[in-house]
Amino acid sequence: MIIHSLLDTDLYKFSMMQVVLHHFPAAQVEYRFQCRTPNVDLSVHIDEIQREIDSLCELRFTEIELDYIGSLRFIKSDFVDFLRLFHLPRQCIEVTPANTNGAISISVKGPWLHTILFEIPVLAIVNEVYFRHVSPVPDTHEGRRRLHEKIDLLLNEPDMAAFRVAEYGTRRRFSRQWHDEVVSMLKASMGEHFVGTSNVDMARRHGITPLGTMGHEYLQACQALGPRLRDSQVFALETWAKEYRGDLGIALSDVYGLDAFLRDFDMYFCKLFDGARHDSGDPFVWGERMIAHYNANRVDPSTKTLVFSDALTFPLAIEIARRFQGRVRVSFGIGTNLTNDLGLQPLQIVMKMVRCNGQPVAKVSDAPEKTMCDDPAYLAYLRHVFDLPPSP
Q: Could you tell me where in the chain the CATH 3.20.140.10 domains are found?
């Protein structure tokens, strides 16, 4: 069994799930899987993926796990009570062959509150099933060499005392076992430079900090749940603040692109939120614009945190840290480059929300290849409403 615990997912799934319980318990959603890596035949693994999903849907939270979740400062007791009854509903997920080139279709449909935890473990399952066939005897010696090379690069870099990195690699990891080893090595070797992991189960078992706030699906769903489309980003941020009262204050900036984010992220949000997360587009341009935006809103950028998490490597993270050193706090979330770097090409797989309450929803990224929507007419309307350029 690949997934042993329902905690084997990213923290932001639980922080969003608590918002759903308290504010949108009746919302109905649809997610869709996509493999962006060409010429990958996943169809031969469907039966194995199905069996792993069967096992996933039999899992329940243990009392030890619930005690851990309940110990997190921002988790409320009624949410823990809900999790005590929770399981993933097997009838809400379907895996079938797609029409071409060995692709597969994975769709999730059902109540948002009961399906939100599917995404991360299902992606981890697809990855591990695929790589256990591509590389039955993984080259862990090469993986360790590469990981030590990254760690040494940082530790030997001058003026990097303030460098902080977290592991964000659950969804695209080579395997659960390798993920566990990576976290162990980072904790043992990096000292105060390693600040935690997005994976709640890894955090609990290794005694490190779980990290994360909100994901794209939260702001996407608010396109259907808010009072009107143009106000959906403001509605999402306001609702988040209502739930967490200033805690978990890192805002995601790229659901509508940076221009639209900055139009909505006014002085109130600049002061209220601790910072913002970068997940697409040029990180240097993004960082400079965020600093300028804070200055324009009479907020000292050095009191705010910019979290970079888009396809990072250690050399790129170090370069970003150098650029913004002393000007703004920076932190880094590195995923695939940590948990799936053993000399094989990682899969570029995602599972994104495409509908909420029967209405299309979309992410319009600063990186065009990350835009995902199954309704071109809605996407064009969204671009018009947020004054975004037409699709390239």
A: 11-136+343-385, 140-339
